[in-house]
Input
Amino acid sequence: MSRWIITLFVAFFLNACAVVHENHSIAVDVYPVEYQLSMSLENGSEKQAERQWLELKHSASQTLLSQPVAFYYSSTSGKKLAKRWSSELLKQGAKDELISVVASKQLGEFDVQVQFINYKVVTPICEPQEVSEYAAQRVGCAPNSNLWQSMVAPQAALAGASVGQMPSGNTLQP
Output
């Protein structure tokens, strides 16, 4: 019996000496960044508009395929481009409910406009851990920062987030 008590005492003593730090969370800011590309189609400038669209599509391809995108047009040539560009996104894998093509009289001098929101994640700069101070620092800054930076749709992880809501109050409607 005393052998069991000594074994339990030694096991408890060894476990009680271990320093275990919890994984602490970090402060994360998620900012909506609204993108708008408005183009006027005059005298054969359709090729220039196509170049601008390809450049935008190349630089923001992940966002265009995973976030709500609205195409607004005010002319027949603008409608033709908006329909073509929306069908390109659908062929590349965008969901139909995230793409909308809408006639608008509020574009002024522009014939077609592409509008979408990208969410920018801002996390704190983490101090690198050193071997000599391993147990002295809080654990979790670097893993949590990397987690938030790698999310495709960080706004979906926030409570009460409205994915299709524009900052100006206009709602992107599929």
The first helix runs from residue 2 to 16.
